[in-house]
Amino acid sequence: DRLKAGLKKTKDILRTDLRDLFKAGAILDDDVLEEFEGRLIRTDMGVAASDRIVTKLREDHGGRTVDVDAVWDTVRGELRELLKGDGSTNWDLENPLSPLAKADSGPTVILVAGVNGVGKTTSIAKISNLLQKNGNKVVLAAGDTFRAAAVEQLTMWSERLGCDIVRKDSGADPASVAYEGATKAVELNADYLIVDTAGRLQTQKNLMDELDKIRRVLQKVIPEAPHESLLVLDATTGQNGLSQAKSFSAAVECTGLVLAKLDGTARGGVTVAIRQEMGIPVKYIGVGEGIDDLEIFDPDGFVDALFS
Ligand code: GDP
């Protein structure tokens, strides 16, 4: 499927490159383990996660003749545990909306942030599509007013998806767009309002102030808003994306991550690093440029896709 195809490059590092390492009959000694750790790190899994996997391998299989299946079982098991973490990602996989919070009544407000180019606009379109396909009415608020192109692109998606959009001229106050979006969502009895926000991160204080203001005005219309604050990350940037996420989440509260462009990158291991080093769950992954190329993040599915 799409995830398997998308993770091919990451998979190739782990499996194809490693077949020579874990040959039946070879001894799993420190040299082999060190080389393996290096390759795990090459997938941008991070030192901590890689170290944990290798430590477990050493414990269970170190100094012995390699039993290929048993070794891979250990790697898979550790990866599953690393990805599942505290269990907060045990969504109902049958319900693609289960990772998202839902308002008790009235519109659910989803705030979306992310640095320019990470795939934020596309991810908003994909999430809107998912919501609509499941019978929800969606209103978009084009709050990334700093970039005219972002507003245009979101407008194009809204036309394609057939959902309402609130937009203003470029340079307008993002908070006023958010406010009008909330008003419109209530007026139209919408199920979801998705608020795009500026993708720049000049200083944490700027970003914090801007998002605080957006929250405040949203709450004038919808007191519990935002119900969900998603940060979009670009998987192809690997460990850089991770440090971006750290500074972002230090500045503003996030409730979930969307990991875009997981397809075609060899840095898919960053998913593990993100899970390990951030207190925020990856809720969705982007596996292509198409509108349907969004999947719920499923740790088991992810590990299976890497080792299929
Ligand atoms: P924004 O600047 O963050 O809003 O980024 P865009 O949504 O405009 O996306 C930037 C580029 O990345 C576009 O060419 C998208 O088609 C592409 N893109 C977004 N998400 C994905 C994804 O999951 N997979 C792939 N392969 N491309 C993606």
Structure description:
With 308 residues, the chain is of the alpha/beta class. Helix content is 48%, strand content 12%. The protein is built from twelve helices and eight strands. The chain starts with a helix and ends with a helix. The mean pLDDT is 90. The protein binds guanosine-5'-diphosphate. Guanosine-5'-diphosphate is lined by residues 114, 116-122, 150, 153, 199, 260-261, 263-264, 286-289, 293.
Concise synopsis of the structure shown:
With 308 residues, this protein is an alpha/beta fold.
Features of the shown structure:
308 residues, 8-stranded mixed beta sheet, binds guanosine-5'-diphosphate
Structural class: alpha/beta
Question: How many E-type strands?
Answer: 8
Low-confidence stretches: none
**Helix residue percentage:** 40-55%
Sheet with the most strands?
8 strands, mixed
**Rg on CA atoms, Å:** 21 Å
Shape: elongated
Task: Return the average pLDDT rounded to an integer.
Answer: 90
How would you spell out the order of helices and strands? HHHHHEHEHEHEHEHEHEEH
Strand order, largest beta sheet: 3-2-4-1-5-6-7-8
SS field, number of helical segments: 12
List ligands, each type once: guanosine-5'-diphosphate
Percentage beta strand: 5-15%
The N- to C-terminal Cα distance equals 11 Å
